[in-house]
Automatic annotation (TrEMBL):
<keyword id="KW-0946">Virion</keyword>
<dbReference type="InterPro" id="IPR014867">
    <property type="entry name" value="Spore_coat_CotH_CotH2/3/7"/>
</dbReference>
<protein>
    <submittedName>
        <fullName>Spore coat protein H</fullName>
    </submittedName>
</protein>
<dbReference type="Pfam" id="PF08757">
    <property type="entry name" value="CotH"/>
</dbReference>
<keyword id="KW-0167">Capsid protein</keyword>
Amino acid sequence: MGLPVYRIAIKDKDLKQMENHIWSDRFFPATLSNGNGSPQAIRIRYRGGHTREYPKKSYEIRTSRATYHFNAEYDDPSLIRNALSFHFFNMIGVPSPSTQHCVLQLNGVNQGVYLRIEAVNQTFFRVRKLPARSIIYAVNDNATFDLNNVSTNTPKTSLFSGYRLIKGRGEDRLRLMRFIRNIHAKRGKTLEKYLNQRLYMDNFLTWLSGAVLTGNYDGFRHNYTIFEYRKRKAYGFLPWDYEGTWGRNCYGKEVASNLVSIKGHNKLTGKVLAYSANRQRYKEILEEILASSFTAHQLMPVVRNMLRQIEDDVYRDPKYKWPLGMFLNEHNVIYAYIENRRRDIRRELQTL
């Protein structure tokens, strides 16, 4: 039995407009059906950065009730790294998007295997009964909690550079800017107290553990979402875009298992881990995950099941980028990464 098939129908003139303006974020009307009931009206646009230039493009689709991202996963030979990462983050208690592999058809033409990803928005938090006062995406390399631009090392014109407010008001934007300013201005015990007040620390350290264990090099400069708990007025973190993980980078190149430091690499992780109490709690969380969730015994059955579910449709994917032999070997790449990464982290824990 193959993957579920999602069929998009869009007027030729609208599709041509999309194809001629790939960098536009304009939505176009279309319909979507998956064999269950009548086609539903949707709005559709391309999404992503450099991936918009690929022959297999990713889409954002909005219905009357929900928003989904249909990711091409073009640079990932396994097509499962995002899905596996979000599964893992949910295992360790960090709220993460639900996913579903599927086949996408556009005006009757097979586009190949896609990953349907739940959008992180108000609905995401409402379904999980998490009262989020604000939702902020880290959208580019400037989302490092630094005072300077990453590329030029000159002062930012706005400390909100690198971020996009998805839910909230101007005051929520100003509050994050004030938080960034304060973590650089405060020192010693004052900063330690401030960080523990303004961060949901267990969530932050567990998110950090997930990013470090999966090896998402870009996960500290962007590829994360900040949300502010309404009652606690503290920031929480969750993952986004984890294609470059589990032994490959975001372009699909195999990389060393120790590419990502146990300390992460942005200004906030550095500030938090400067304090022994936070380092000790971080060690406890990592040790717990290493003993329970981040093991080949726990993860490889998930890996094999995901690969088995999509295998037949990968063979039929007209836009699959890689030699099929690479797909067939991906379980070995991921297995080796897990085993090597466990050794890396054990070694780094001794000097943290």
